[in-house]
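Duplicate of earlier report; DUF3243 domain-containing protein input re-posted below.
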Amino acid sequence: MSTESTVIKNYDTWKRFLGERVIQAEKVGMSEDTISKLAYEIGEFLDKKVDPQNASNRAIKELWDVGDESQRQTIASLMVKLAKQNA
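Output:
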């Protein structure tokens, strides 16, 4: 099983993984706005390409699916903040 697969299946691992990436991005000078935009793009990719493997991921996908673009950007921004707290 690949690291990416494990990260996507385990919600706590995914939050830590994303949090570590957020901290790395900040260290190289990326703004919070840029990081949130990247999180949005990742969310779009995951929505189209990954079948949620657990209840947490499925709940996030369902929220993503019913949201408009602005709401999805909010979800992405909140996920970045949540991940950063769990890094």
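The radius of gyration is 12 Å.

Merging into the original ticket.
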